[in-house]
Specification:
Blueprint: H1 8-15, H2 19-26, H3 34-47, E1 62-67, H4 72-87, E2 91-96, H5 101-114, E3 118-121, H6 131-138, E4 143-146, E5 157-160, H7 162-175, E6 180-184, H8 191-207, E7 216-217, H9 222-227, E8 233-237, H10 240-244, E9 252-254, H11 269-291, E10 301-304
Parallel strand pairs: 1-2, 1-3, 3-4, 4-5, 5-10, 6-7, 6-8, 8-9
Length: about 300
């Protein structure tokens, strides 16, 4: 009588673990804890499980992508990612955090269970806990930041030239005769918002000699700001998502990489092209990380859109 072969599914049922966790442990993936891995390996040995040698270290050729939202800005980036990944023989699994750190963490854990080879991350505005991200990198799963970065994490990144874009937008506003410009949104996270603020601040210092510092408000303070002002107000938004919450007919709204007055129409062709290239270069760098197994000491920080395109 032929002996029935033990499967990973049977091991997972005995240990009350997911089949994905069992598979990753038996393949020696670094994102499984030592304790869990030892328990799974011991059970597999006792049950008489054996794996095909070819499958033990086979890459999944799957890349995880986490973005804050799936608006037209990021979908243009995704188009570039898909194009480059396809060319290199990789598939993408995509998730949106809705700018929520908890959702972002759940997506990261799901991607690890799926066995992704690497991760593209545009962190949420809430992301503060960086130890989890650092552990992922330490375990051998590379992360490349796209659009937004976390300064405390040593990793490759591809971003846009937010500072230059913000400066030329604010400069145009002041030159058009609008003197009351309010910066709307956070300036501490993610870093792209801060870089955008720096560009705005540079123009403010050049053109506004009456005030010592610019006015920074949140979405909840807009109505009060409008009611107290007798002159036209321009809201200089920290990011595209913030701009989408405003009515461009009630005030001048300025969003990243768009001309003003702001509209919800798709981005200009030139901007779409740059966003797609940002997606392509992000995946390209991630695949290079996967091919280079040596410990990295230097990292690439690519800034797209160096020319004034606003």
């Amino acid at each position: 009588m032929k002996m029935q072969r033990i499967t990973q599914k049977q091991i997972s049922q005995v240990l009350n673990l997911s089949q994905v966790t069992v598979s990753r442990a038996l393949r020696g993936r670094p994102d499984i804890s030592v304790e869990t891995k030892e328990k799974i390996v011991k059970a597999a040995q006792e049950m008489g499980f054996y794996a095909s040698p070819k499958s033990e270290r086979k890459p999944s050729r799957l890349l995880g992508v986490i973005l804050p939202t799936l608006d037209s800005f990021y979908m243009s980036v995704v188009q570039g990612m898909v194009r480059d990944a396809e060319k290199r023989g990789y598939l993408l699994t995509l998730g949106a955090s809705n700018d929520c750190e908890k959702i972002e963490r759940r997506l990261l854990k799901s991607f690890l269970e799926l066995g992704v080879d690497g991760i593209v991350l545009s962190p949420s505005v809430e992301t503060r806990e960086v130890k989890f991200l650092q552990r992922i990198i330490t375990k051998g799963i590379p992360i490349v930041f796209c659009d937004r970065i976390i300064d405390q994490i040593s990793a490759n990144s591809v971003t846009m030239n937010y500072e230059n874009d913000a400066y030329c937008q604010a400069k145009k506003l002041y030159e058009s005769g609008i003197s009351k410009i309010v910066f709307l949104g956070p300036i501490d996270a993610p870093s792209s918002s801060y870089r955008r603020y720096l560009g705005f601040l540079k123009a403010f210092k050049e053109f506004d000699s009456e005030n010592d510092s610019p006015l920074i408000i949140t979405l909840g303070q807009i109505e009060k700001c409008l009611s107290r002002s007798s002159e036209p107000v321009a809201f200089f938004c920290a990011d595209y998502k913030t701009a989408m919450n405003l009515d461009p007919t009630s005030a001048v709204v300025v969003a990243p990489w768009t001309s003003f007055p702001f509209s919800r129409n798709p981005f200009p062709t030139l901007v779409v092209s740059i966003l797609q290239e940002m997606g392509e270069r992000t995946v390209s760098i991630l695949v290079q990380d996967l091919q280079n197994q040596e410990k990295k000491t230097t990292f690439n920080h690519i800034i797209m859109g160096g020319e004034n395109i606003c």
